[in-house]
């Protein structure tokens, strides 16, 4: 048999090799398919023309196909790893921003609470200082009242009775006219006791006493202790002397005429 008559017998094995390369190329991905197409083009053309001397088509070995497939998988793995890293970085950045915001809010809250506590402490210290100052002033007044310089109740009462009938004038301190605290200040000054000028501090200038246990010379007040709006002096027999108002002037009246709120003992 001539060489030309044997050509058809070579085509079938070549076609089998192409099928093997095609399957390998599909396994290797796009890169393998492109390589397979380029290699198979001359062989396809040879099959149509069927020349006497046909060149064998290059085939891809299993090793080459596996290499292409491995390269494709490696490339895909790199892309996936990059995408996953980007997603992880974005998630981490978002979480860090959330934690930073949370910490900032907690710090702001802590500072606000600290400021509030500091303000409360400052206010409490100021109030304590003011109370201490008042207590010191009260103690000083009490001390002065407890040790009058040569005065006595009789002198005090004598002075008060001498003022009855004089005028009441707001802000007056004598000798022709008085307001309520001006009269009491002038009266206690006769026996060496220096009272404050107004009724509010006068109402805390001695030792508090019950209205049921009054003694002549006790200072009476109307309103709250430390916030009294009127003062007078108890003269005994259930009566007091005081500069009442501009209508009555300085009068002596029974306690029932205008019941006082409280009293302090300054003599």
UniProtKB/TrEMBL annotation:
InterPro entries: NLP_P60_dom, Papain-like_cys_pep_sf, Peptidase_C40. Residues 150-267 form the NlpC/P60 domain. Residues 74-147 are annotated as: Disordered. Residues 77-90 have a biased composition (Low complexity). GO terms for biological process: proteolysis. Residues 91-137 have a biased composition (Basic and acidic residues). Keywords: Hydrolase, Protease, Signal, Thiol protease. Residues 1-45 form the signal peptide. One of its GO terms (molecular function) is cysteine-type peptidase activity. PANTHER family: MUREIN DD-ENDOPEPTIDASE MEPH-RELATED. Belongs to the peptidase C40 family. This is Glycoside hydrolase. It comes from Streptomyces qinglanensis.
